[in-house]
Amino acid sequence: MDKLPKIGRYEFMAEPFHCDFSNHLFMGYLGNHMLNAADFHSNERGYGMNYLNTINKTWVLSRLAIEMEDMPKAYDKFYVETWVDNAMKYFTSRNFKVVSESGHIYGYGKSVWALIDTGSREPSDIFAIREGLINEYIEKDYICPISKSSRVKITDKASLIRFIDTYYSDVDVNGHINSVKYIEHIFDLWDLDWYRQHTIKRLEIAYVAESHQGDRLHFYREQRDSDLDFNVRITKSNELCEETETCRCRVLFV
Asked: What's the family (predicted)?
């Protein structure tokens, strides 16, 4: 079989009911498209979840940064390009580029993924998968110009904004709360009037621990150095009301 290109390119459309009141694609749906592109790309090249699940392994998202200049409008067709630019024993970094049919660049994404054992939930050796097949598809020269995720530092002064319970529709194929569901809940910390005046410029999120259906999620928010820049912490609580951190996030508006 011929070797596939290192960079994958996948077509999507901004479906109207995936768009917000401004007629632009919700950031959460863009995140889903990026994760789908990553899944398509890795499956086609032989180290995706279709194969991994047969050996009790899976990919889980560890970090994600998305930085956009603008967003596709309803009915716009666009492409998500994706490629792996580095692989280590337990983690790999994957980039994204979001581009229109005419070549207009909407924005970029950077992500870090961990390979884990589905039974133990412990990290697994990426290079043990098909004799290090992923190394054949590392692309270092295609540029993704945005910064990597920073280490978000949030203080004890962050305010509890709300808590939510988790249900069936929050859970993904890995059996834990879906990565993008956290993002959607985070964006709901600001109301519609805020979004009438501001748009999301950059999102950074780091996933610290898994949460599952039935966990209660608590959302803490604090302002950074400007009134358009925020940190968010998400914790989960158990029956004893003990809280454990699950995510840290930064949201920058313009």
From this structure: Belongs to the acyl-ACP thioesterase family.
